[in-house]
């Protein structure tokens, strides 16, 4: 389903000429060869005020970005999995303070890295068990192998867990193996971007009695009309999938990265609740509107409004921000003035990050430079899709916010 503008920008408080700067700005990246192409959507008060595409989804094949292009959304999968978990929470299936070992016994006796090398790490017992809220907030002490910033990251890579897991490894196996690796820190004491949402996806499976793909399809994607969101693309749909690119280390030009991109063309062994979905602008737009409307869309309610408000508050210990609690390394967000809720980064104060936002705005992004945000104060949502790895190559997300909020004049 293609996404088109539904309202004139000035009818919802945008200056049309200022909003047009979004396209002209991002077009320069494509014209300079730094991005292959992109798709952008801006809404206000439930209406699409801006929807545009530019460049190619596949430069080598000569295929332009179309409104129905499929994108690897990577970590934008995390909010979907977090919603799945909170739907089960609303049913009383668990408490956020419950130890996850109740359902995933492999996590009953985890240990924490203390010192030493990857060849000879020294660990100590965890003084606090991993709880459900730790998974939702990335405070469990888990990490990612691809971060390459700690000894524990190295242990993940040695065990076969880099950006993708080793072939043939399913979600249950991965959780059993990850539980045997040391934690990066004591649960609840810091924030570290991690496989926590993959473990949360396994928790969803065990609690619900359904595989993660079945649960998402039947309980979220189907009811919300997200008919194009899936785990891989095959057949004719493979041609709709944007190619993956990375910056050339010398020139900065976008170079095709099929070594990473080809994973999206085959059924995954591991259903990654932290990064496995492909989606379209139209589908993810529906997801953001469901959030903006407090858990309901087109008469279908998946979460109560108080639950959505609860999820999008800062849940970091002591109300601290990521600037104080983050372990560093790769992340999908800036740090200062930013908290973290149950599946989303949350703006506590926009001034420290020097990015115009509203207090209470929540957002996330993916490693291929996709991004979304929901601003419940201004009733604005923003979506950016492109396929450039890593997402830290350019400040695309901050630039988009800068341009969109500069165009908001009412």
TrEMBL record:
Classification via SUPFAM superfamilies: beta-lactamase/transpeptidase-like
Origin: domain of life: Bacteria
InterPro entries xrefs: Beta-lactam-related, Beta-lactam/transpept-like, Diverse_Enzym_Activities
E.C. number: 3.1.1.103
Keywords: Hydrolase
Molecular-function annotations in GO: hydrolase activity
Gene3D superfamilies the record matches: DD-peptidase/beta-lactamase superfamily
Boundaries of every Beta-lactamase-related domain copy: 22-399
Pfam families per UniProt: Beta-lactamase (PF00144)
PANTHER family: BETA-LACTAMASE FAMILY PROTEIN (AFU_ORTHOLOGUE AFUA_5G07500), BETA-LACTAMASE-RELATED
Protein name per the record: Serine hydrolase domain-containing protein
Organism the protein comes from: Plantactinospora sonchi
């Amino acid at each position: 389903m293609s996404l088109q503008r539904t309202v004139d920008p000035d009818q919802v408080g945008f200056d049309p000429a200022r909003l047009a700067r979004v396209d002209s700005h991002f077009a320069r990246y494509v014209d300079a060869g730094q991005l292959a192409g992109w798709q952008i959507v801006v809404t206000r008060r439930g209406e699409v005020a801006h929807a545009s595409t530019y460049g190619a989804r596949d430069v080598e094949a000569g295929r332009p970005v179309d409104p129905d292009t499929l994108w690897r959304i990577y970590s934008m999968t995390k909010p979907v999995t977090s919603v799945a978990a909170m739907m089960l929470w609303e049913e009383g299936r668990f408490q956020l303070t419950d130890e996850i070992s109740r359902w995933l016994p492999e996590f009953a006796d985890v240990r924490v890295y203390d010192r030493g090398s990857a060849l000879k790490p020294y660990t100590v017992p965890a003084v606090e068990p991993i709880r459900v809220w730790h998974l939702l907030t990335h405070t469990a002490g888990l990490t990612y192998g691809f971060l390459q910033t700690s000894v524990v990251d190295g242990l993940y890579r040695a065990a076969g867990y880099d950006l993708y897991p080793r072939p043939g490894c399913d979600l249950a196996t991965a959780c059993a193996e990850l539980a045997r690796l040391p934690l990066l820190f004591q649960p609840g004491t810091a924030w570290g971007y991690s496989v926590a949402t993959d473990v949360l996806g396994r928790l969803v499976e065990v609690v619900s009695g359904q595989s993660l793909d079945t649960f998402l399809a039947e309980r979220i994607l189907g009811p919300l009309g997200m008919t194009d969101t899936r785990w891989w693309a095959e057949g004719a749909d493979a041609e709709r999938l944007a190619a993956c690119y990375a910056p050339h280390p010398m020139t900065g030009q976008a170079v095709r990265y099929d070594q990473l991109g080809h994973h999206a063309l085959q059924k995954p062994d591991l259903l990654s609740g932290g990064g496995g979905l492909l989606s379209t602008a139209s589908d993810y737009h529906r997801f953001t509107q469901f959030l903006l409307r407090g858990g309901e869309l087109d008469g279908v309610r998946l979460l109560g409004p108080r639950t959505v408000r609860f999820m999008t508050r800062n849940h970091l210990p002591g109300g601290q921000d990521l600037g104080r609690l983050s372990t560093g390394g790769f992340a999908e967000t800036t740090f200062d003035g930013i908290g973290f809720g149950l599946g989303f980064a949350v703006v506590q104060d926009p001034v420290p990050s020097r990015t115009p936002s509203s207090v209470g705005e929540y957002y996330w992004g993916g490693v291929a430079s996709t991004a979304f945000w929901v601003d419940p104060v201004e009733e604005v949502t923003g979506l950016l899709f492109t396929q450039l790895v890593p997402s830290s190559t350019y400040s695309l997300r901050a630039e988009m916010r800068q341009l969109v909020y500069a165009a908001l004049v009412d």
